[in-house]
Prior knowledge:
By secondary structure, the protein is α/β, with parallel strands linked by helices. The protein has a single domain (28-183), classed as Uracil-DNA glycosylase-like domain (Uracil-DNA Glycosylase, subunit E, 3-Layer(aba) Sandwich), CATH 3.40.470.10. Helix content is 36%, strand content 15%. The chain has 6 helices and 5 strands. It has helices spanning 2-26, 48-53, 64-70, 109-126, 136-142, 180-183, and strands at residues 39-43, 91-95, 130-134, 154-160, 163-168. A hairpin with a 2-residue loop joins strand 4 (154-160) and strand 5. The radius of gyration is 18 Å and the shape is globular. It starts with a helix and ends with a helix.
Amino acid sequence: MKNQANHVAKSMRTTVVQQSRGTLSRKRLTDHIRPGVRILFVGINPGLRSAATGHHFAGYSNRFWKLLFDSKLVSEPLTYQDDWRLPDWGLGLTNIIQRPSAGIDVLMPPEYIAGRKRLIATVKHYRPHIVALLGITIYRTLFPEYRTGRISLGLQAKTLAVRPVFVLPNPSGRNAHYSHIERC
Length: 184
């Protein structure tokens, strides 16, 4: 009887987790962009914690908010709960794919294609001074001719909807390629 009760409890926990992830994977985050945007930051897609909180870059190990302040692009320390305030500094936030996931390995090629079209339309509409891609993965997705080979961080020769493109390291804690000091 005790084993059966444990089995039922475990089964219920698994079901709740699966249902929660299913619900989160359908939740979309709001873009935070206004006309006159100077820098449009583009992420790959929201993580599950971002979907759960309803805010961009909410992962525990994500360094976006700290780096934003350290770079002096904002005048005060912010957290993921302040994402809606970025337009006050002429900054914007969006993702190439809106569907949240635990990692990018589950994202499908058609999602990247649709995301590219959506991003180009967003850039044409808002005309940011610069499009800041948060990760080389996004650059490779937007410009398939660069799927292989080395890509340097910084200003790129390519443009997106005639706007300059700047590649930054992905701020996710999963991206161990760059230390905080290298990012500043």
